[in-house]
From TrEMBL, chain A:
PANTHER family: 1,2-PHENYLACETYL-COA EPOXIDASE, SUBUNIT C, PHENYLACETIC ACID DEGRADATION PROTEIN PAA. One of its GO terms (cellular component) is cytosol. GO terms for biological process: phenylacetate catabolic process. NCBIfam families: PA_CoA_Oxy3. This is Ring-1,2-phenylacetyl-CoA epoxidase subunit PaaC. InterPro entries: Aromatic_CoA_ox/epox (IPR052703), Ferritin-like (IPR012347), Ferritin-like_SF (IPR009078), PaaA_PaaC (IPR007814), PaaC (IPR011882). SUPFAM superfamilies: Ferritin-like.
From TrEMBL, chain B:
It holds the Pfam family PaaA_PaaC. It comes from Oceanobacillus limi. One of its GO terms (molecular function) is phenylacetyl-CoA 1,2-epoxidase activity. SUPFAM superfamilies: Ferritin-like (SSF47240). GO terms for cellular component: cytosol. One of its GO terms (biological process) is phenylacetate catabolic process. This is Ring-1,2-phenylacetyl-CoA epoxidase subunit PaaA. PANTHER family: 1,2-PHENYLACETYL-COA EPOXIDASE, SUBUNIT A, PHENYLACETIC ACID DEGRADATION PROTEIN PAA. NCBIfam families: PA_CoA_Oxy1.
Amino acid sequence: MKLVETAEQAKQDPSYLKAVTELIYQLADDDFIISFRGSEWLGLAPHIEEDVAYSSITQNTMGHAVMFYELLEQLGEGKADVLAHERQPKDRKNGCYLEKRNGEGAYHGEPYFDWALAVVRNYFYETFKQIKLEAISDGSYKPLANVAKKALMEQTYHLAHWKMWMKQLQKSTDEAQERMELRIVEAWDEFGDVLELGDCAEDMQRHAIITSSEELKGKWLQEVTNTITNVPNKPLKQIYGNGRNGEHTVDLEQALETFAEVYNSDKTAIW
Amino acid sequence: MYNYVEDGDSKTTAYVEKDQDKYQQFMARIEAGEKIEADDWMPEEYRQALIKLISMHGISEIMGALPEKEWTPKAPTLRRKLGIMAKVQDEMGHGQLLLRVAEDLMKPYGKTREDLIEDLLSGDLKFHNVFHMPTKTWADAGMVGWLVDGAAIMSQTNMLDASYGPYQRALQRICQEEVFHAQHGEAIIMALAEGTEYQRDILQESLNRWWPALLMFFGPSTAATTGSSKQDIMIKYRVRKSTNEELRQAFLDKYLPRVFSLGLTVPDETVHYDKEKQQWIYEQPNWDEFKQIIRNKGPKSKERLRLREIAYENNRWVRQALVPKTVES
């Protein structure tokens, strides 16, 4: 495997550049939107200890997103803040399931958020992120591998946290089991595109930036099916479309509007 | 963030400890600078005043995360977003730390954290006046860090040598983190003060809006103002050192020169420093309004309490799921 040490070196090969850029957009946008949804939970978690833990995880995850956006900046994609704030939904590469609202109600109003959704979503996502980061940390793009190694130091704890919730709630009261099962079955229909690497998947693998999407998916399924009590007996789907191709729901539009509200209020300003 | 909330309703009655020997020993210990621990004997008045103080402090940290939470998703740059996320996480952490301290004190009464949350929702447990206020613009997110946390640092450092050990130790850490919060707030404010006309406008407007709440922050100068004050008891038991007015003066000393040097004004034409009296002269805020605010009749009291209520009700199934099952043999 030929290591690519710097962004400048990556820019020498257009096919390499395209593949690595695409992958980093996916990583950045995934972390960004799930952290955004996580930050909406602040003050609303089941107990104070969880509020402390979840907001710490959300904060770390936003930190990872920032590192990824900065890698894109180095690759000539523009300023990290512009990438985070100004890109239209059609240019966003995050999986659709990650943009889904936290439950019923509204963040600025009456937020009837669902903890079962938070647990299932975060567990599914963090499991895949762990697998992906491990693959990337052995990959050919050195700056990305370094960021992946750094993120993995925190990732282990994030995953352990959500896995603990999965196990506890699935073994608990009937109501908890039912609520969890409902969200697991729902996720089975919606999570599919998160596991994809998009149109450049083959080039990503050919350039040894990451392993094949089939291998990643296989590892994810193995881990997740070991943790779920009743594995849904149906194939994984992506009923909201493929976020890797810029297909998204109104929930992403709402998130981006909120997110960029102050930023857009005076674009000439330095904040 | 924090603070000591005066209880506008209860009447303070003279307290007489039955066990005078123990009481004298206790007073001798705290006067010698010793720390009281959770399992030590303590006068009823001391325990109750601490429970009130620390549970209000803890719950105010938690309620205090809510106004800033409104701006967390909207923070205008990635760096600011990381900053405010870290800050609100700290605040929840302070709340947790303090509730643990309060829980130990409440043990003899058989009361738990559930009781505290229920007291909050029923209005029996008050939270700090500043957290009943609306945050209308991004400048408010800066103002909360800069001046509200700045005021909190003043009132908390006043208790860094508090006679109750568990609280005193928690405060060491809290104060260290609050210093970062104030710097975070100041950085937001500086960017606005040096920014565009729009940015300067929202900054001035925010300061105008927060000014009365900031004056109220330290509580009334004397019990005469609002009917009661616990500050004398807290000083007697060596929990705090300075009076409310001394703290307010120290706050004005520190921050008014900074406010003016940024080209900002405060909405009080009478504000000036009296060199002879060596103190700031200012127009008193409306203390009747203060009493209303801490009785949960402030502009945002209902909404903020409603958020906690929703969280409490909505997550009942999770709490029930976490109760250990009785294993039948």
